[in-house]
Design goal:
CATH class of the largest domain: Alpha Beta
Helix content: 25-40%
Distance between the termini: 29 Å
Strand content: 15-25%
């Protein structure tokens, strides 16, 4: 099979979908890998690194798409790439189609077989590709929130952990899953006053045992969310319903109760976001202000730590890429329920509810 690795086109997306060791693993099995010029530049990998591993270097993105059976990416194709997709091609990447109707229709119209990283689910019910990126995003959420609480970035001028004689910032996290627990770990580590709101009773028990007295764990409800965010300095949205659009848990009226120059970071933005007032932003222009509250809605947060993110991501994706390349997508999804759960479109049909 011919595997194509285009350079990512999303704003400040510095990750790459395959590293040279992955190229070597595939080419040694008789597959061909085409890598776009400078695809790995964001993590310090040059064309020679890929060529020495057995890749062919293409000097335009169109050459990658034209000649590849399987397109391997990190983030979803952007509109400039839509015309490059073709019937029968396989696309393996983060897709988040529940919040992207336009791309969904393109994949159906072009009869592209798409498999989404974020819905690949193993027999234990875990998401092996999504989890490391959720971990990164969760840890970044508290770091980024702390940064925008600084007065030079428009915030209140608060140190997340405070100091003697000054209260620590109050961090409220909606959701206690992978993103939420990692955001909380960082915020607790920095000395913040942390509250996590979670819906699942079993997860609440786990979080209480995990954090002890270091964080307050509250049963999530519209009222408890409303009450918790009134005094929050940093509000982090961390709820994921796999494959579904994010629920709008926080209305504009609720956000209006937050004090001026507070910060909200919505990690769920790639699925539509949890806040009524949130919209996608970019690493270049990451924030905007509504009712005095700073909003951060960058959908590719791990892109600013590409070295960490790329190696964590490709460690998980390579085995699936090898299976698709060896068997073709039909047999691959028949033989691997994890891949089957990730299948979104095939033969012009939507196959994932």
């Amino acid at each position: 099979m011919i595997i194509g690795v285009p350079r990512e086109t999303k704003n400040n997306e510095n990750r790459v979908s395959l590293v040279p060791t992955g190229v070597a693993a595939l080419t040694q099995k008789g597959h061909k890998v085409i890598v776009e010029h400078d695809a790995g530049i964001g993590i310090g990998l040059g064309d020679d690194d890929y060529a020495n591993a057995g890749a062919e270097i293409a000097f335009s993105i169109s050459k990658v798409y034209e000649n590849s059976d399987l397109i391997l990416k990190v983030k979803e194709p952007l509109p400039d790439e839509y015309d490059l997709l073709r019937e029968g091609q396989i696309l393996f990447t983060f897709l988040h189609l529940a919040a992207n109707e336009e791309l969904t229709h393109i994949l159906l119209k072009k009869k592209v077989t798409s498999i989404a990283y974020e819905t690949v689910r193993n027999s234990e019910g875990n998401f092996p590709i999504l989890t490391p990126m959720s971990t990164v995003a969760g840890r970044l959420a508290s770091q980024i929130g702390a940064n925008f609480l600084q007065i030079n970035n428009g915030g209140k001028g608060m140190l997340l952990g405070g100091v003697v004689g000054s209260e620590p910032a109050r961090v409220v996290i909606l959701g206690g899953g992978v993103v939420g627990i990692n955001a909380a770990e960082v915020a607790v580590g920095l000395g913040a006053n942390v509250t996590i709101l979670e819906l699942d009773p079993k997860r609440i028990d786990f979080l209480q045992n995990h954090f002890g007295t270091k964080a307050e764990i509250i049963q999530s409800s519209p009222q408890s969310i409303s009450d918790a965010i009134i005094d929050s300095d940093l509000l982090i949205g961390a709820v994921l319903i796999p494959g579904s659009r994010s629920p709008k848990l926080v209305s504009r009226k609720m956000l209006h109760s937050m004090s001026r120059n507070s910060v909200v970071v919505d990690v769920a933005i790639d699925q539509g976001g949890l806040f009524e007032t949130i919209k996608p932003t970019t690493h270049q222009n990451p924030t905007y202000v509504v009712d005095g509250v700073i909003h951060y809605g960058v959908p590719n947060m791990p892109g600013i730590v590409p070295h960490t993110s790329t190696y964590a991501l490709t460690k998980q994706t390579l085995r699936y890429v090898e299976k698709i390349a060896e068997l073709g997508w039909h047999k691959a999804v028949e033989n691997d329920q994890s891949l089957a759960s990730g299948l979104c479109t095939a033969d012009g049909m939507m196959v994932n509810a």
